[in-house]
Specification:
disordered C terminus; elongated; alpha+beta; single chain; Penicillin-binding protein 2a (Domain 2); 20% strand; Beta-lactamase; 5-stranded antiparallel sheet
Length: 647
């Protein structure tokens, strides 16, 4: 049947519509494809160029700049210095052993450095850079850069390393930094990623470790383009981390340097505190060491020389060292008796050279005795029998409580390592520790700072500051953090009878400035600078009855480690106490001979803000002191690093 014209026209229209739709769809597809191709080839060309030829983007951590440490006057004590180093990333290196072997032919690398690098690469995530060599020369950096195509994954970098410009002067206060160890990580519940960067430095001891969270800062990150050979092509973006906080200490670098030089080769320690606010102006232990040796890993030879030294240079004796305080403790025994109303300043005790207690003879240091002595005379001449008698009247509980009120047997909050609590023993302590009852003889021993009684030089300085002011002065080592002043702690009244405190100060004055005082030879002549103090000598061995009958062996005739410790505490000026000082010379013999002269010299140095005039010393000592001052000036390192305000 023939189609009509109308049917034929309708069929043609349907074919034309389909063709148009199909053509339109084809054009739309081709247009979309063209647009997509333009987007990929033009708009996204840079992004896909990075992915071409096996290129990829790596994200790497940027270690933060560690906060710096300054003294109270702005002198740098711990700072960061640029350091060239060479690092390797395992996932970019391919055959690590082959790359390290090639690198060893280009620059000089010790076999132990290569072994350490291989071990750290095995233990670390593949994307973390591992340091192959630190503190390398610019010449070595240039060689590595020129040979980069043959060293995939190896990159020369400029980092920051810690240095201590004052050398050994602040070793025991600041401590030092070192690479993060497995032991360090084991002590942290959730370590920050930056701590897992091999050879990343953290504080190990001292202020560096106690203020680690403040000093470390927060890590940043950078995106880098790396090609198939592992070579960094360019840096795409960078987000800097947050640098650590700068910390200002209360110490005075010049005074600390003088004290360290004055202690010289002694096994000794000294603390100087500001009586007003508790600022620790100097805190020195001798002998000392150079903390710079520890920053990149100390050699076995250097470490052995420190650990095998019988004077223990690694120990921070000012806060770690615990010693029987000897006669420097007599003020505490006296204050316990005065506050309890058991004695008056004019009450006397007869000293025949010993006191019988429970069938045991307790001796005075002076074999012939001191005769009749009152409070001031007993302290001035350091009569032991007077304090034996007081102790029996007062009892250990009141003595122990008084010791703690004056800062002994208390762990003070200073950011140094292994701060010791010391010991102010009582009946309960002995029962818990030894399962034994307290005896009267124990109280007699404690009354002169022997027996179980133990204290650190820092605690003795606190005790002296509290005696001088009548306030609960607390030691402060941190002055400010990022410019924000840290408030002093304590300072409220001890609640002591002021008349009793005056009696103790007058007696301490007599110790130094009365002709019969045990420290008269170390007095200060200048009236406005005069000091009050107390000598101390603590035994480290038992003296047998046979030795007493034959004559006690002099310290000079004993091996060093069997000699008595020498101690001295003082404050100055007498009328307006500004500084409190404590000095301990290990096995130094008598406190009047070994410790008092050191304390007098560093007290004058603090009072005058530098070398004091010779007129401040007794006439007979001036020639010797002049020669000593010249020698000490030669010993002190000259500061060659600018302060924070000059940087």
């Amino acid at each position: 049947m023939k189609k009509t014209r109308a049917e034929t026209d309708f069929s043609h229209r349907r074919i034309s519509r389909r063709a148009a739709l199909l053509g339109g769809a084809q054009l739309l597809f081709i247009g979309g494809l063209a647009a997509r191709m333009r987007y990929l080839q033009v708009d996204q060309a840079d992004q896909f160029r990075l992915l071409a030829e096996e290129n990829r983007i790596n994200v790497r951590l940027i270690p933060p700049a560690r906060g710096e440490v300054f003294d109270r006057n702005g002198m740098r004590l711990a700072q960061n210095a640029p350091s060239y180093r060479i690092v390797i990333v395992r996932e970019d290196a391919g055959d690590v052993d082959a790359v390290l072997d090639r690198l060893a032919t280009i620059i000089e690398l010790a076999p132990e450095e290569l072994d350490r690098t291989r071990e750290e690469l095995r233990r670390s995530p593949s994307f973390l850079p591992v340091t192959i060599a630190e503190d390398v020369s610019w010449k070595d950096i240039s060689r590595v850069s020129v040979n980069a195509p043959a060293l995939p994954g190896v990159t020369p970098e400029v980092g920051l390393s810690r240095i201590y410009p004052q050398g050994s002067d602040f070793a025991h206060v600041l401590g030092y930094v070192g690479p993060v160890s497995d032991y360090d990580l084991s002590k942290i519940t959730d370590p920050e990623p930056v701590l897992r960067i091999p050879r990343f430095q953290i504080g190990k001891v001292g202020v560096e470790t106690k203020l680690e969270p403040l000093l470390r800062g927060k890590a940043g990150a950078k995106r880098v383009e790396v090609n198939a050979a592992g070579r960094v092509m360019r840096e795409l973006s960078r987000k800097e981390g947050t640098p650590g906080a700068d910390v200002q200490l209360t110490v005075d670098a010049k005074l600390q340097g003088y004290v360290q030089a004055r202690l010289a080769s002694e096994s000794a320690s000294a603390v100087i505190m500001d009586c007003d606010n508790g600022d620790v102006l100097a805190c020195a232990s001798a002998p000392t060491f150079d903390p710079n040796l520890f920053v990149r890993g100390i050699s076995v030879r250097d470490y052995s020389s420190l650990t095998e030294n019988k004077y223990r240079p690694l120990a921070s004796k000012t806060v770690q060292g615990l010693y029987p305080p000897g006669s420097t403790f007599k003020m505490i025994t006296a204050m316990a008796a005065l506050e309890a109303g058991l004695i008056g300043p004019d009450d006397t005790v007869y000293c025949p050279g010993h006191l019988e207690v429970s069938g045991r003879r307790f001796h005075c240091w002076k074999r012939a005795g001191h005769g009749w002595v009152d409070l001031q005379t007993s302290l001035k001449r350091s009569c032991d029998v007077y304090y034996y008698d007081l102790a029996i009247k007062v009892g250990i509980e009141k003595i122990s409580d008084m010791a703690r009120r004056f800062g002994l047997g208390v762990k003070h909050d200073v950011p140094m390592s292994a701060v010791a609590q010391g010991l102010a023993p009582n009946m309960e302590w002995k029962q818990q520790t030894y399962g034994q009852s307290w005896r009267v003889g124990d109280t007699v021993n404690v009354s002169i700072g022997q027996g179980f009684m133990l204290s650190s030089p820092m605690q003795l300085a606190v005790m002296t500051a509290r005696l001088a002011t009548g306030r609960a002065v607390e030691p402060r080592l941190i002055k400010s953090v990022d410019g924000v002043e840290q408030p002093p702690r304590g300072g409220e009244s001890l609640g002591m009878n002021e008349n009793n405190l005056r009696k103790m100060r007058r007696a301490m004055n007599a110790v130094v400035n009365d002709r019969r005082g045990t420290a008269y030879g170390s007095r200060i002549i200048e009236d406005a600078m005069r000091m009050a103090g107390k000598t101390g000598t603590s035994q480290v061995r038992n003296i047998t009855a046979a030795e007493r009958r034959a004559g006690v062996i002099r310290n000079e005739d004993l091996p060093w480690e069997r000699r008595d410790h020498a101690l001295f505490v003082n404050f100055a000026p007498i009328d307006r106490p500004k500084y409190a000082v404590a000095v301990v010379v290990e096995h130094g013999g008598g406190g009047s001979k070994a410790a008092a002269p050191i304390a007098r010299d560093i007290t004058l140095q603090a009072l005058y803000g530098g070398p004091p005039p010779l007129e401040a010393y007794p006439t007979k000592d001036r020639e010797r002191i002049e020669a000593q001052q010249q020698e000490l000036q030669r010993m002190q390192p000259q500061a060659s690093f600018v302060g924070r305000d000059q940087a």
